[in-house]
Amino acid sequence: MDPALAQRLNEINQAFYTDFATAFADSRTLDQPELSRVVALVPPAGRVLDLGCGHGRIAHLLDRQSAAATYLGLDFSASLVRLAEDWAGELERVEAGFAVVDLLDPQWPSVLRGRSFDVILILAVLHHIPAYTNRLATLRQLRDHLAPRGRLVISTWQFTDHPRMRRKIVPWQRVGLDPGGLEPGDYLLDWKRGGLGYRYCHLVDRAELERLATDSGMILLETYRAGGREGDLSLFGLLAHPLHEPR
Questions:
Q1: Beta-carbon neighbour count of residue 200 at 10 Å?
Q2: CATH code where residue 62 lies
Q3: Of 4, 42, 176, 211, which one has the greatest count of Cβ atoms within 10 A?
Q4: In angstroms, rounded to a whole number, what is the distance separating the alpha carbons of residues 203 and 219?
Q5: CA–CA separation, 91 vs 218, rounded Å?
Q6: pLDDT value at position 67?
Q7: How many domains does the chain have?
Q8: H/E element holding 188?
Q9: CB 72 within 8 A of CB 108
């Protein structure tokens, strides 16, 4: 994909999460069973990196379920990060920090300053990263920040599987784009809560997830479906660094 087109798709999503930050945060609650399963992976006093942290709800789930965790939340929406920082004042046990980063900026890992993490989360984010090469670069960057025996958890929407989600797919002309330069699996989805908005989404299915794991030099330990009204909206993948796993 042409870098200029990838940047344009990224800007569409940045505009959405700026304009609809509060409405989006209100739609993402703490009472989702699939998140409890993810948080259960965090060891006592674990170190957690949450890419696409939104308004920081994972930090609050950790605060409920684990003691003395250290949490770093990153998001490309300054509006969502501000909401996360405001809400973080209610945390009692978790030490939380937040920063605004753009995953299309090759220098974004500098915010990690060589830190390693027991659990890295990239939930409902990979499908918002334009171009396979950029999705792969993100996973390669994250691989080197996994602690020994650390786990990287991915979730991606399988939005073509359900009529409710398929109805959200709209023509690219809505945002003035010619679809000619897009990659197979690229879609534009609408949003109608609190106004009309649009998001770029790529269908990262199981085949692509397996390819990303292989190409990034990681091991795909497990996949499963969970989440959404249907109970299986997202494909989850649990990845590990091969050098940290027993042979």
A1: 24
A2: 3.40.50.150
A3: 42
A4: 21
A5: 33
A6: 67
A7: 1
A8: strand 186-191
A9: no
pLDDT in tens, 65-94: 866 899 999 999 999 999 999 988 889 889
156, 232 in Cβ contact below 8 A? no
pLDDT at position 242 is 84
The amino acid that residue 11 corresponds to is: E
Cβ atoms of 236 and 154 within 8 Å: the answer is yes
Q: What is the pLDDT of residues 112-169, one digit of tens each?
A: 988 999 999 999 999 999 999 999 999 999 999 999 999 999 999 999 999 999 999 9
Q: Residue 19 burial (CB < 10 Å; 0-12/13-18/19+)?
A: middle
Q: What is the CA radius of gyration of the chain?
A: 17
Contacts of residue 12, defined as CB under 8 A and 6 or more positions apart, other chains included, come to: 175, 188, 198, 199, 200
State how far the Cα of 217 lies from the Cα of 144, in Å rounded to an integer.
Answer: 10
Per the domain annotation, does 162 fall within a domain? Answer: no
Does 94 map to a domain? yes
Q: Which of 54, 51, 112, 44 is nearest to 78 (CA)?
A: 54
> What residue numbers bound the domain in which 71 lies?
3-154+171-244
What amino acid is encoded at 73 in this protein?
A: G
CA quadruple 162, 167, 172, 174: dihedral sign: negative
- C-alpha 135: how far from its chain's center? 11
181 in a domain, yes or no? yes
What would the two tokens of residue 174 be?
A: 């809505």
| pTM of model > 0.70 | yes
Q: What's the pLDDT score for residue 125?
A: 96
Whether 58 is covered by a domain: the verdict is yes
How far is the C-alpha of 18 from the C-alpha of 79, rounded, in Å? Answer: 6
The share of the chain scoring above pLDDT 70, in percent, equals: 97
Q: Are 27 and 5 in contact (CB under 8 A)?
A: no
